[in-house]
Write a structure and sequence with these properties.
Keywords: Coiled coil, Kinase, Membrane, Signal, Transferase, Transmembrane, Transmembrane helix, Two-component regulatory system. With 795 residues, the chain is of the alpha+beta class. The protein contains 23 helices and 28 strands. The chain folds into 6 domains: 160 residues, D-Maltodextrin-Binding Protein, domain 2 (3-Layer(aba) Sandwich), CATH 3.40.190.10; 93 residues, Periplasmic binding protein-like II (D-Maltodextrin-Binding Protein, domain 2, 3-Layer(aba) Sandwich); 43 residues; 101 residues, Beta-Lactamase, CATH 3.30.450.20; 127 residues, PAS domain (Beta-Lactamase, 2-Layer Sandwich), CATH 3.30.450.20; 128 residues, Histidine kinase-like ATPase, C-terminal domain (Heat Shock Protein 90, 2-Layer Sandwich). 21% of the residues are buried.
């Protein structure tokens, strides 16, 4: 009860009559000289209006027009100082027919449509008329159309844009079409429908009748009518003047115009049945519950503030949506993609600015032209076929390439896409045009580059290929193989590019391990790839191949390997033959060295045994002669002593020769031989020689012991001749299955000169080591001495 009383009081205050719109002072409009001259030439303007209350209605008694549009146009005429000639029409169809015949110059209360844009210029909206949802006053609450079902019928006038909007936006609604708004409200009172959708102006006209006094507004569908002033398209000056005059109207004047003619007029409270009884009860309740009412009022104020904030937020959202709509239209006009709306007859109904610029037409020059004017191949038969395909494609666009004809007879390479669209009970094909001049030029350049690459790759004496990996962890595939593959291995490039083939299918079985090892290492570290090995051709012939590929990382983080595979069979055959020849020479050298060492040992034994026996007999004979004849001749004693000394020297010379040919110490083992050789070196050169040998050295073959001893002799000879060392260190040690000999001096060192032939001493040592199956490493720096390391396998 309190809610009803307060709502009635607020309505009584809100419905107090205000100043009439016509009584407001005319707006001040600042006009340019050209606009004033134009108005001076057009003092009378014909205005076309539809007789529909409350916008425009004729008082038959005084023959006078009144309504929202009449007051608005009078205010604009007063601001522009022009005379209006009224043309009235019974309905919108009659108005549009008169517009085609140019029977009037401007018409208020028009809504902007694609068809109207081709005929009229529209002003900014001056009035917003919402579409309201009306229900019963008792128990009426806000309604959400998303939650309505078939048991909640809704009445709406048909045909109309509002009915189309409801069918499109709310497929769950049970819509009942009626011929007029009055019939819809009557159906609501008769409970044939639960809600009625009606615009605010018509509800304002009908709400003053007692019959509809118990109805209330319970919602807004969010699809308002934006009323504009439409003017002749060939008079753009008039459109600009109307915009300036509308801008001169204050928001207060427009609100007064809306409140006077469009806002809903509820019946006075005194006219409601049982008003005084309810008012008496209300005062009694207020007297008994003043404190409770005060608390309720405070809560209601908070609710009203919250509702006001929500309404303000909704208004901001609506303004943002309108701004987004304007931005969308601006984006379409400024788009780089040409957009055409085409009817079934292939004539253009709308073209954005990009399409006009692409085709070289002036503004508005594309509209109403058939598509055959731009693409002669789009004759009517083909267009109808495309229309049928696009209409049945369930929203999937149709795309094709075309060469369009511009206004200046030049051509435009373009990609054309067709999309079917229904808009306000009309069907269109939206044509999207994209200029692909640069893309086709780039494609031609790419094709030429690929042809040049194919030509180069075809003339390379080998197989050119490219491997690609799109990202880390992905498989590496052949992106390109040149036609040289057929001449090299007998397979065409298409066969080798298959996922299960590639070069790995050609690798000889014994070389697959080395192939995959080198390839996996290169792919894992994004490094260059190099491999040599045997492959099998299509005919089963075994060939040698050398594969080299250079890794390169691209901007998209993918990695490619550009490479070439050469047939090196002839070179490899020569290399193997040369290696075999070297091996044979090395074996021959080893055999000769072995024979020479054996000959030396034989000669050493013969020298030691034969000459030793002869010298011993000679020494005995000399001693016997001394005992028998020395006392007979004093001079003979001196001669015999001289002969003894010569025999002793000859004994030492024989021992030295035998030792030089083959030191007997070798029979005691290589460790003892090294120690003995170090002592002889130190005695001859006075250079301290530090020796380190193992105690328990396994038995070493005689050939390896002699070879290692000869290497030591040559190393010490080089130290004595060239090193100018102060100390020499010799070390013999076991290193796994190898025997390691290290010779270190602190001499002047040396640096090997590139291209300079090594000395025969080093060559001899290296060859001896190779014959023994070992390795030799020589390290030296100027002023830092030299280190010689020899590894010989025990086995």
């Amino acid at each position: 009860m309190i809610r009803y009383f307060l709502g009635a009081c607020l309505l009584l205050i809100a419905l107090q009559p205000g100043a009439a719109f016509s009584e407001a002072p005319p707006p001040t409009v600042a006009l340019s000289a050209e606009q004033r001259d134009w108005l001076a030439a057009h003092r009378q303007l014909r205005v076309g209006v539809v007789l529909q209350a409350p916008y425009a209605q004729m008082d038959r008694r005084v023959q006078k027009l009144s309504g929202a549009h009449i007051d608005l146009m009078k205010a604009l005429a007063s601001a522009l100082n022009v005379e209006l000639l009224w043309q009235t029409y019974p309905d919108q169809a009659a108005l549009e027919a008169a517009a085609q015949a140019r029977l009037f110059d401007l018409a208020p209360g028009q809504m902007q449509t694609p068809a109207g844009l081709r005929q009229w210029l529209f002003s900014d909206p001056y009035m917003r008329v919402p579409q309201l949802v009306v229900g019963a006053r008792v128990g009426g609450a806000a309604v959400d159309f998303e939650q309505l079902g078939s048991s909640d019928p809704v009445a709406v006038r048909t045909p109309s844009a509002v009915a189309d909007y409801l069918r499109t936006s709310y497929s769950n609604l049970n819509l009942h079409g009626v011929d007029s708004e009055r019939q819809a409200l009557q159906n609501l009172l008769a409970q044939q429908v639960k809600y009625v959708v009606i615009d605010e102006a018509q509800l304002s006209r009908l709400s003053g009748e007692a019959e509809f006094g118990e109805l209330a507004v319970v919602g807004d569908i969010g699809f308002p009518q934006l009323l504009r002033v439409a003017s002749r398209r060939d008079w753009p000056e008039l459109s600009g003047l109307i915009d300036k005059a509308l801008a001169g109207l204050s928001p207060k004047q427009l609100d007064e115009l809306h409140n006077r003619w469009v806002q809903i007029k509820y019946p006075r409270l005194s006219e409601s049945p049982g008003f005084w009884q309810n008012l008496t009860s209300l005062f009694a309740v207020l007297l008994l519950a003043a404190v409770a009412c005060l608390f309720w009022l405070r809560r209601q104020v908070r609710n009203l503030e919250r509702a006001l904030l929500q309404a303000r937020h909704a208004l901001e959202l609506r303004e943002a949506a309108e701004e987004a709509l304007r931005l969308t239209q601006f984006s379409i006009d400024q788009s780089t993609v040409g957009i055409l709306w085409v009817n079934w007859d292939s004539h253009v109904r709308y073209a954005n600015r990009a399409a006009e610029q692409m085709l070289g037409y002036p503004a508005g020059g594309v509209v109403e032209r058939p598509l055959a004017a731009f693409d002669p191949n789009l004759h009517m038969d083909r267009w109808l076929a495309l229309w049928k395909r696009a209409r049945g494609s369930d929203g999937e666009p149709l795309s094709f390439e075309s060469t369009l004809l511009r206004f200046d007879a030049s051509t435009l390479p373009a990609d054309v896409s067709l999309s079917f669209l229904r808009f306000r009970q009309a069907e269109y094909l939206v044509v999207y045009i994209t200029d692909v001049t640069e893309r086709r030029r780039a494609l031609a350049a790419l094709q030429e580059s690929q042809a040049r690459l194919q030509g180069i790759a075809a003339n390379v004496p080998g197989m050119v290929f490219r491997l690609e990996r799109p990202h880390a962890g992905a498989e590496v595939d052949f992106a390109f193989i040149s036609d040289g593959s057929e001449g090299m291995v007998g397979y065409p490039a298409a066969v080798l590019q298959a996922p299960d083939r590639g070069l790995r299918s050609l690798v000889y079985s014994e070389d697959k391990a080395s192939y995959h090892g080198s390839q996996d290492l290169a792919f894992a570290n994004d490094r260059d790839w190099h491999w040599q090995g045997r492959i099998l051709t299509k005919s089963g012939e075994q060939r040698w191949a050398d594969i080299k590929a250079m890794a390169r990382r691209l901007d998209d983080n993918s990695v490619v390997w550009d490479g070439i595979a050469w047939d090196i069979t002839d070179n490899k055959r020569i290399e193997l033959e040369l290696a075999d020849s070297r091996a044979q020479l090395r074996e021959l050298s080893a055999h000769l060295e072995s024979v020479r060492e054996e000959e030396k040992a034989r000669i050493a034994r013969e020298v030691h045994d034969e000459l030793g026996q002869v010298l011993t007999v000679l020494k005995l004979e000399t001693s016997m002669c001394e005992l028998a004849y020395a006392e007979l001749d004093p001079g003979l004693q001196d001669r015999l002593n001289s002969m003894k000394r010569l025999i002793a020297n000859l004994f030492q010379l024989v021992r030295d020769v035998a030792t030089a040919l083959r030191p007997p110490i070798l029979d005691a083992g290589i460790a003892s031989a090294i120690e003995w050789q170090a002592q002889r070196f130190e005695a001859r050169t006075q250079i301290p020689c530090i020796v380190q040998v193992p105690d328990n050295l396994p038995a070493l073959a005689d050939a390896k012991a002699i070879g290692l001893f000869r290497i030591l002799q040559e190393a010490l000879t080089n130290v004595m001749r060239h090193a100018q060392a102060h100390t020499v260190a010799l070390r013999l040690a076991l290193d796994g299955d190898d025997l390691c000999l290290t010779v270190v001096d602190d001499g002047i060192g040396f640096i090997a000169q590139p291209g300079r032939t090594a000395s025969f001493g080093l060559v001899g040592m290296r060859e001896r080591v190779l014959m023994l199956g070992g390795t030799l490493r020589l390290e030296s720096q100027v002023g830092e001495g030299t280190t010689l390391t020899v590894h010989i396998p025990l086995a």
